[in-house]
Design a protein that fits this description.
single chain, alpha/beta, Aspartate Aminotransferase, domain 2, binds 4'-deoxy-4'-aminopyridoxal-5'-phosphate
């Protein structure tokens, strides 16, 4: 079917709130390229929002999925467990840098991982509150909606949010929130709103994802670790977007040397198959009673096979070195653009988790969301999928596969340059 025919079906049958505004329908994809239903080729700098750090259909993952399909697709792991779940738990326990011996729960999505992290933190501490950050994003279920530090569009239209979620500032010096102020905000929240003795956890993205790709300084993450220890709260790092090689290391928190109590991950964990994980110190992970955690599809055998193959690919193909090199390439290019264009500023990156933002001018730093929207639109017309993000919707973020071929990367960057020229 053509894009046009599929669009007509979408308009008639897909709920408005869930329907993509994109009128191109994906038909075939390979590494960093996607072809739509009319055969038009697009370069993919979005990777399905950070899911495809290993590219579309990495051969090792495809092979593992096919092999698993011939064995068992589903049992519900609480009814009858299988090798993939426990092997993946073993692997994650070894590679995820939480404190002490780590144990694992698998789930289906990022939001579900966060939901379960909060449940586990409550069980482990006997406390209810969680503290999250301005601009943070954790999902679209009720608890995670409440945890999101941005109201529109996530909370609008959906009535009261669950209570017991409190907010602290995230350090974004470019927009006036210094690290010191952010820390003071967290300490104030613990004084004025969220009694530490009732607070189970502080949940932080080491690099703000949807909120704008702002990396938290290592010293800030260390300070949070100390505050959590002082009050017996758990430190939970949400690495759903920053994990699995997006920042030049397997997990972003590794840049800081901080060991959280728990981490959540999903997206690039299985190169496109739906799966997520909660990985935490054993005594916390074991805190809740028998049959208290789970779900019909949690840790599907097919997704476990994909995740194991993806992690193997990271190890065998030195993906982290490629990620670091990509980060350097983007950084160099962004600095050139920052020099050249008066409206482009605040280039930043932790590895290839890289972004820049549009402003009225470099003195006022007034966000220009209209320019971000104009750039992504122009790029789309020229055959490049590019995403904006941020509290002010004025940042452009880069989530292309780390495995992108040099020529395809260059072609995509040229499209951006051409579009920036047209905007100036
Ligand atoms: N946490 C973070 C940091 C995310 O970026 C996202 C998704 N963008 C989520 C949680 C939610 O993940 P999912 O969409 O798989 O529920």
């Amino acid at each position: 079917m053509s894009n046009k025919e599929l669009q007509a079906l979408k308009e008639r049958y897909v709920a408005a709130g869930a329907a993509s505004p994109n009128e191109q329908f994906a038909d075939y994809a390979k590494n960093a390229e996607v072809w739509d239903a009319d055969g038009k080729r697009m370069i993919d700098f979005a990777g399905g929002i950070g899911v495809l750090n290993l590219g579309h259909r990495h051969p090792k993952v495809v092979e593992a999925v096919k092999a698993q399909l011939d064995k068992v697709m589903h049992t519900c792991q609480t009814v009858m467990p299988y090798e993939g779940y426990v092997k993946l738990a073993e692997k994650l326990s070894h590679i995820v840098p939480v404190r002490g011996h780590a144990k694992v729960m698998l789930a289906n999505s990022g939001a579900e991982a966060l939901e379960n992290a909060v449940k586990i933190a409550r069980a482990a501490t006997g406390r209810t509150n969680v503290i999250c950050f301005d601009g943070g994003y954790h999902g679209r279920t009720f608890m995670t909606m409440a945890m999101n530090g941005k109201v529109n569009p996530y909370q609008t239209d959906f009535g009261p949010m669950p209570g017991t979620v409190f907010r602290a500032p995230y350090p974004v010096p470019y927009h006036g929130v210094s690290e010191d102020e952010a820390l003071r905000g967290l300490k104030m929240a613990l004084k004025t709103d969220a009694n530490p003795k009732d607070t189970a956890a502080v949940v932080i993205e080491p690099v703000l994802g949807e909120g704008g790709f702002y990396p938290a300084p290592a010293s800030f993450l260390k300070a949070i670790r100390d505050i959590c220890d002082e009050h017996g709260m758990l430190m939970i790092c949400d690495e759903v977007q920053s994990g699995f090689g997006r920042t030049g290391k397997m997990f972003a928190i590794e840049h800081s040397g901080v060991e959280p109590d728990m981490m959540t991950m999903a997206k690039s964990m299985a190169d496109g198959m739906p799966i997520s994980a909660i990985v935490g110190t054993d005594k916390h992970m074991d805190a809740s009673g028998p049959n208290s955690l789970g779900g019909t599809y949690t840790g599907s055998p097919v997704s476990c096979a994909a995740a194991l193959a993806a992690i193997q690919a990271f190890e065998e193909e030195d993906i982290l070195s490629r990620s670091q090199a990509l980060g350097e390439t983007l950084k160099k290019r962004f600095h050139q653009w920052q020099e050249k264009y008066a409206f482009l500023d605040n280039v930043r990156n932790l590895g290839p988790m890289a972004a820049f933002e549009f402003v009225k001018d470099k003195d006022s730093r007034e966000p220009r969301a209209d320019l971000a929207a104009a750039l992504t639109k122009k790029c789309k017309e020229k055959g490049l999928i590019l995403l904006s993000c941020g509290m002010y919707a004025n940042s452009i973020r880069f989530l292309m596969p780390v495995t992108i071929e040099d020529e395809v990367l260059e072609e995509g960057l040229k499209i951006i340059e051409e579009s920036l020229d047209e905007l100036s």
